[in-house]
Amino acid sequence: MPSNRPITPSTLSIKDLPWQIHWNKDKCTLCGSCTAVCPVNAIELGVFRKRTVETALGIEGSASSVFKVYHGIRQRTDAAYACVGCAMCTQVCPNDAIMPYRSDEAPKLPYHINQGGQPRRRGGRRNVPGGILDQIKFLRISMLTDPALDAGRHEFEVRTLLGRVLPPEESLKHFNENGWVPPVREIYPLIIGSMSFGALSPPMWEGLQMGVAYLNEELKMPVRMCTGEGGCPPRLLRSRFLQYVILQIASGYFGWDEIIHAIPEMKVDPCAIEIKYGQGAKPGDGGLLMWNKVNQLIAAIRGVPVGVSLPSPPTHQTQYSIEESVAKMIQSMSMAWGFRVPVYPKISATSTALAVLNNLTRNGFAAGLAIDGEDGGTGAAYDVSMNSMGHPIASNIRDCYLNLAALGKQNEIPLFAGGGAGKTGNLAANAAALIMLGASGVQIGKYIMQAAAGCLGSETDRCNICNVGLCPKGITSQDPRLYRRLNPEDVAQRVVDVYLSFDTELKKIIAPLGRSTSLPIGMSDALGINDFNAAERLKIQYVI
Amino acid sequence: MEREFYKISGRENGQRLSSRILEEKIQQAVAAGHRALLIEACGQHGIGGRLWKAGAEPVYVKIEGNTGQRTGSLGYPNTLIEIMGPASDDAGWLNAGAHIVVHGHAGNGLANAMAQGKIFVGGNTGARAMTMTKRNPRFAHPEVWVLGSVGDYFGEFMAGGIAVICGVDGQDPENVLGYRPLVGMVGGQVFFRGPHKGYSTSDTRLSVISDDQWNWFTENLKNFLDHIHRPELLESLSVRSDWNLLVTRTIREKAGVRQRSMSSFRKDVWDKELGNGGLIGDLTHLDRRPIPLVPTGDLRRFVPEWANQKYLSPCEASCPSGIPVQERWRLIREGRLDEAVDLALAYTPFPATVCGYLCPNPCMQACTRQINLMKPIDTTQLGKASINASVPDLPPMSGKRIGVIGGGPAGISIAWQLRQQGHEAVIHDRAGLLGGKISSVIPETRIPKDVLTAELDRVRKVIPQVNLTQNLDRNAFGNLKNAFDFLVIATGAQKPRTLPVPGNERSIPAADFLEKAKTGAINPGKRLVVIGAGNVGCDVATEAHRLGARELTLIDVQEPAAFGKERKEAEEAGAVFRWPCFTKEITAEGVVLDSGELIPADTVVVSIGDMPDLDFLPENIDREHGFVAVNESFQTSDPTVFAIGDTVRPGLLTDAIGAGRKAARAIADIIDGHRPLTPQGTSTGSRSGQQMIDRNRVSLEYFDPRITEFKDTKSCGSQCASCGACRDCGICVAMCPQAAISREQKEGTTYEYRVDADKCIGCGFCAGACPCGVWEMTANRPMEG
Lengths: 544, 785
Hints:
Number of helices of chain A: 17
Number of strands of chain A: 21
Radius of gyration of chain A: 26 Å
Distance between the termini of chain A: 57 Å
Number of domains of chain B: 4
Largest interface: A-B, 70 and 66 residues
Shape of chain A: elongated
Strand order of the largest sheet of chain B: 1-4-5-6-7-8-9-10-11-13-12
Number of domains of chain A: 2
Oligomer: heterodimer
């Protein structure tokens, strides 16, 4: 692209881009690694003409103009090839000669990315650093509880319950009258939230499952992982590892015929069934797995032909109210496993969450409610959905918990909170805050992608190209050329590391509260915040 | 041991003394020189500790009754405390050297944080005995001997000292170590005897008792048993095989304590349960082993292609005659001037006349250099040199005959092309001169006569069959149609368009003016007005000036379309361009505009274009807006009749020449059976489907931007970027970081650049560095997930 050229309104310079490549000519060895690895072709080899005018001191003799040509890395400025800041170039550079830097001013790219009238879509996160969870402190520190607890060395039973917990007398009555009580699972309170096989690459998905199996079988931590919509590999359905899996059913109903065919051959029941109604990152919007990502593997697992687009509508078809839907769906899914498996809905955080919850309290089969806040991640969504739609998780989970408390059912229907836990790395603190605000457990997605697989996303619009299958770490790509960068074993080991360290950190928080064998769910007298309005809203202490 | 005791009671007058008072009494007694104290305790705190007032002299404290918590705490090395009954919690707490004997059981927290001294217990201990004990290298390590068992959480955070647990009549016969012992232990040793239910394996490990350790043990065991008055147990407790020794794991050992490795878990647990290949081993047989970030071969994301001449250069793409200009410059660079010159004859019969003089050279306007504000390569130099181009060898006649009506550039072009393909073409023209407007209308100032003559002579060698001064009407057309396999209408636009204004008859059409001017048969006077300020109007002005006119005005209803050489020469002759001007009337005085203004004129020339004269055409040949209607192959509604040049649409000479070439190709294809007579949307030329190269792929940085003119064809050739066509410069070979590119010489002068896929990483450096934009990067073929 010549530097001197006619411009259009959307002709951008490097300065206008959100990420700028700094390239060091002296260090560069022209090895080609950076351009070979760049996921979006934001850089290319450039030919540069350098001119010097040579004049002698004292202006003796005649001056001359000398041109030299050199080669180097040039950043492309077309909107379609804008650098996404992933820094894979830096990663691969043998001489540390290249690095993207975030623009020091508001980039102009967002105003021009909608070429052809197509608004920007992306994967990843909301790109809003910080949040209320990080501001919450734990105030109630028992100086000398009995026994004094040491997070590192004392014994803990960090467990939560997933399922409808009836009060003892009701439970007995229920059993005597019906010969059945609702199933309840005792699980670890940090759950790997729903990310489908398809949204994630094969090694990523397998790595997560393998890590979960390791935690269960080698370390006796009952960690659970939700499949997300899109089915479950047939082998997993027929293995004992299925007990560590929460199967998800969503509006696309993909993969469920394969699950039905597997039920007679299942060695164990799955942990639970999650009915997805919404996703925190893009509430009210559906999903679409593009035809070109539906390769043989995905097709086999979802039970569809290769190369067809797979839409998941924003809503469940044929269902017209949450009452009807929850009633129907919970009944149907419970029946599939003879009422032995807990079934619960997952909704995006919303100001109408209480309506859903109230309905669940009247539904004797409802095993819980998962709520996904606006800070949840996603594989693909419109910018506007990610940026502007949704409800923060903290107040939503709090409202729901307090509502349950008002009904006297706070120990009966567990609430699970997702979306934003560990957003800035403070996973244990955020999870503990959510638990003390009323969540029985916390779901994580982005955090585990970052910690277990090195996702490059950050809250500064870095990378965020999960939606186009170009994930430079191979986490969300279906292209073997990319996903083979990821070793499932390494992912599994990182999952184990994350859980062990989380476990220690969570204990560091709950041990001083004197809790070692029961989670401090709703123990909001332990929480404080130095924001008066937030304190009022969350009904926790205002501290300065 | 009988000795004199100084007795201190914990009660006075039936009242229990406070711990503070009793402590005062004990300290006073020691200060007074008493070295054997009998304390009748009543639950007081900390009895027997802190007796440093006695200095190095030993103090013996015997405690009867109920001793309180922390007996012997902060104990001093001179002190021996004997508790005759059980000890309450925290006995020996923070002991710094006292020797404490407990004849009964000990409560919780025995020896907590003890650093020196010994504690002998004749019974069991409560929870958290020997926790946080220390060892100071300046002193002997602390010891705790327990005859029975220890309670839960024994030895937590133990950081030094030796504990001995004999397991005699323990509280829990099944477990002498209690629940969760030795968690967080970082130093010390534990001898124990009897069954247990586990200990912290991450902090401790069993060790073989060495001879030295056993000797130490047996020596001290007797002392212990003597102190607790159980010497009879010596023999039964001296069975070496009954004893175990737990030692602290070193830092290195702790680091080495690993869970099962993930690869072992994957192999022995995961794959075993799921089957070979794990989770999806049954669904795919793809190699899924990890790869590096920058792989080669099939795993590359992008693949370079040496797309030599895959795309048209801008000059070739914009040449209506389709001349591969960059190819001619390549031949020049290779020193093959003759071939470069001759090559043009495959495309045009007038490489010198048109390319060198008359053409506005769209090739130069399109030149990538021009777009980048650099001097375009000068095609006219090559054109002018083409005067020497020699007639190609002609193939034998096929027997097919084509009649060409019109001997202008279009007609000559198609006849030229057809003859080169072996078909006989016969030109018919009304005029007495071959060449159409080139010969009759275009001023000699624009085209030297000898150049034109030479090229027309060359044409005549190729097309000997030229019938001039032929009359043309419908009858003649019918006769021709019967005489030939195909007819081509190339009669041009002969009929001047006129202005529907009063006095129109006073004006003269441009073509007539130019034709007469060329032979000197007209005198324009001093003042000339040309209505219609296009390039033809400019020629009129220039010619009029040559013939003596001095006030030259060109008017137009819109901004004049004139450009290039014609306009420049007219301006040099003093022509004034005026617009918008609407002609109301032409009078003897000149041109009257709508505004009423009169532009005085001796001669008024109307130059608003010419229309074809199609009266001779039969009805079955369709017209459109006064021109012959044709398809993209220039075929009329009569499939054996083609029409080209200005009879189809007004255009440049090169347009007419290009049309002749395309139509000739279509006719030849029909004759050869390569396409049906009646077309169905066919393409017209072999390269016509090609796209022009993206100029951004060309790197002009390799060229000097300060070159303002080219002194000869050689310098033109050297400065041509050869867009889309390899210059064989080898920069790619030098640039490739993997040395994956090589040049392969093929037959004759042809060559190829090849990529070794096993070396290539798909970095695109070849594409980035290529001056010509030949290398093209494409996504590697999709790999099945």
